Amino acid sequence: MSDEAVQIIARGPRTVAEAAAEAIENNLATEAVTFSILEEDEERDVWRIDAFPNDPDERAAAVEILKGYPELRTVVEKLADADWLAMALSGLPPVRAGRFFVYGAHDKGLAPASTVNLRIEAGAAFGTGHHGTTVGCLQAFHDLLKAQRFERVLDVGCGTGVLAIAAARTGSRIAVGTDIDAPSVRIANENAALNQCDARFVHASGLNDQKVRAEGPYDLVFANILAPPLVALSQDIKLALKPGGIAILSGLLRTQERRVLAAYMSKGFRLVRRLHRDAWATLVLKRA
Predict the structure, then answer these.
(1) Annotated binding-site residue? 224
(2) CATH T-level topology, domain 6-81
């Protein structure tokens, strides 16, 4: 299969699948591999990992990791020579998370009149609203909005920009997103224009970038990234927030909750709420 695009599929018990997914996420050789983990058959306790390596080296590394879990049934399938990302997105249904309805161009006519409708086109960026982490962030934000509004919002690792756009569409005066990936920033700004909102996205390598600090301190920070950078950024996220500000963290597996939570509690945060969707976790924290 040399340079052909492939999909790696692994099935097995939840505990084994979660451990394998964490191993893929934490291995330097596979840190850029896009993957998902979800429950496929509740009665039989079958969970499924879908991984999409970018090159042969990542494919070999991911397969080698999965071989270390013999209870998983792993197959590698060739992807057809086509824009498989666009094809996959065209088949995705719209997503409802609280007051938010996330949809693509193919479902424009399905948007209800009673929801905050967010048209999100992914391109090469992460965050269409279908992933458990993005849904968790939107649901957590919806619930927080029942009691308060957030004037200044920052989205760390913005991907498609869906979270900052959701904030701008629900009254946040300042909604800034940042990403280390320049194409994601371009896509996020295009999505902001599609949604006719004032969310702004910048290419920056960290929260100390002047383009990020200029609008702070923030009332709320989204960080839907991965567990290791969430831990590494705990102090920077604290400094980006006002005292009493809220952090909504996701991109972590349930098995990684304790490590991420410990890092933030050591900085004076307290846990407000946790949400689970499939194997993924979302944490809502409040800065002291």
Answers:
(1) yes
(2) Alpha-Beta Plaits (3.30.70)
Range from 19-28, 130-139, 202-211, 267-276 that averages highest in pLDDT? 267-276
Q: Say what the pTM is.
A: 0.77
171 labelled binding-site residue: no
Rounded (5°) CA angle 249-255-261: 40
What's the pLDDT tens digit per position in 171-186? 999 999 999 888 889 9
Domain spans in the chain, listed from the N-terminal domain onward:
6-81, 131-287
134 is in an annotated binding site: yes
Domain 131-287: which CATH class?
alpha beta
Pairing of strands 46-52, 6-12: antiparallel
> What pLDDT band is residue 129 in, cutting at 50, 70 and 90?
very low
Does residue 54 have a known ligand-binding role? no
212, 214, 216, 220 alpha-carbon torsion, rounded to 10°: -40
